[in-house]
Design a protein that fits this description.
Radius of gyration: 22 Å
Shape: globular
Helix content: 25-40%
Structural class: alpha/beta
CATH topology of the largest domain: Aspartate Aminotransferase, domain 2
Largest sheet: 7 strands, mixed
Strand content: 5-15%
CATH superfamily of the largest domain: Type I PLP-dependent aspartate aminotransferase-like (Major domain)
CATH class of the largest domain: Alpha Beta
Strand order of the largest sheet: 2-8-7-6-5-3-4
Number of strands: 12
Length: 378
């Protein structure tokens, strides 16, 4: 795959290696947003179908991306925390049940579980491998007959460590535990198949690797949640809500499957158009091609950084679109930050780590610039 910088509005003197925090919008998304604004400015042109048909298209695209046959299992939501709250709202626990989470898990995939544990006198069990042990070994050993829920990412959000979700799913099924996945840092840039993994729910932010606007997210809900309760009651999620003339003939039934969990005002005329263009492009690129490209431009730099004394996870056990770099002891981080800023290099700092996250607009030269900048303060 060739570099795709021409699709983005990123100046040539900018090295942006921080997509994991916020993705740039490529030009087609910007234009889609303008179309949505123009539609909103002329409300007399908005049809009843405009509230529903674009949302269905969006759900179908996300279903295609994550290998789901029925788009009715997809809900469009505003955030990961909204999705996790919806999941937690439909789970009942027993006293002493364990909810397994990963050490330093992102807060949006923690607070709902903490609240649920407090409600039922359950236990939050945090997993962290001892030195020299692999994540998967520690996670699998931590899943026991006390485990009710395993809530984790497809990868670790801070350093790109890969988790063996197939093995984890197999054990959770054996013990009748739920598997809830936060795919925010991997869906769109790393292949993922719901058919293969069979999670009970997959929640994913839309503004990172899926290039949607901030305030967009997606959720897949499996059979466990087919008859659950949404955390809000909005008119558009009820059966036959497309019939505007009959809206006050109050409908007790929800639309089927995950449609009941879709956020109110899901037909946002601006956001939905932007999200559709974004997903079309990601599907056209394919997550595998994105992953392969990121590996091709970062592999040599990661080896050179390791030789300089940085610590980076073995490439067999991490992703290439996102990975953590532990800086050498004694390195002047304040000076490094100043040098990076001076060179217009944007990365994410996590204490003594930097998180590097790249995409198709990056090149090998960007990584050479990063390496040279780190060299300059050693």
């Amino acid at each position: 795959m060739q570099n795709q910088k021409h699709l983005f509005d990123i100046p040539d003197d900018i090295t942006y290696l921080n997509i994991a925090s916020q993705s740039p919008a490529f030009k087609a998304i910007y234009e889609a947003g303008l179309r949505g604004l123009k539609q909103k400015s002329r409300p007399y042109t908005i049809l009843g179908s405009d509230y529903f048909e674009p949302v269905v298209e969006l759900k179908k695209l996300f279903a295609e991306l994550i290998d789901v046959e029925d788009y009715n299992r997809i809900a469009t939501i505003p955030s990961v925390s909204y999705g996790m709250a919806t999941v937690a709202n439909n789970i009942t626990l027993n006293k002493g049940d364990e909810i397994l989470v990963i050490d330093e898990q992102f807060p949006s995939n923690y607070y709902s579980w903490k609240k649920l544990a407090n409600t039922y006198n359950a236990i939050i069990k945090t997993v962290c491998p001892v030195k020299g042990e692999r994540w998967d070994t520690t996670i699998l050993e931590a899943i026991t007959d006390k485990t009710a829920i395993v809530a984790m990412g497809n990868i670790h959000w801070s350093n790109g460590s890969l988790f063996d979700l197939k093995a984890i799913r197999k054990k959770t099924k054996q013990l009748n535990a739920l598997l809830i996945i936060d795919g925010s840092q991997s869906i769109g840039s790393l292949p993922f198949s719901v058919k293969d993994i069979q999670p009970d729910a997959l929640i994913c932010a839309g503004y990172k690797w899926l290039f949607g606007p901030y305030g967009s997210a997606y959720a897949y809900f499996g059979e466990y949640f087919d008859n659950g309760e949404p955390i809000e009651e909005n008119w558009s999620n009820r059966l036959d809500s497309e019939n505007f003339a009959s809206l006050t003939n109050y409908q007790p039934k929800y639309k089927p499957l995950a449609n009941r969990y879709t956020v109110g005002e899901s037909g946002n005329f601006i956001y939905v158009q932007m999200q559709i263009e974004a997903l079309k492009q990601v599907i056209k690129w394919t997550p595998k091609a994105i992953q392969d490209y990121c590996k091709s431009i970062s592999f040599e730099a990661s080896k050179e950084l390791s030789e300089l004394g940085c610590i980076i996870e073995d490439h067999n056990y991490r992703t290439h679109h996102l990975f953590g770099v532990k800086l050498p002891e004694g390195l002047d981080i304040i000076k490094l930050k100043a040098n990076l800023l001076d060179q217009n290099i944007f990365v994410s700092f996590r204490g003594e780590y930097i998180r590097v996250s790249c995409h198709l607009y990056n090149t090998k030269k960007d990584f050479d610039t990063l390496v040279n900048c780190i060299k300059s303060v050693l």
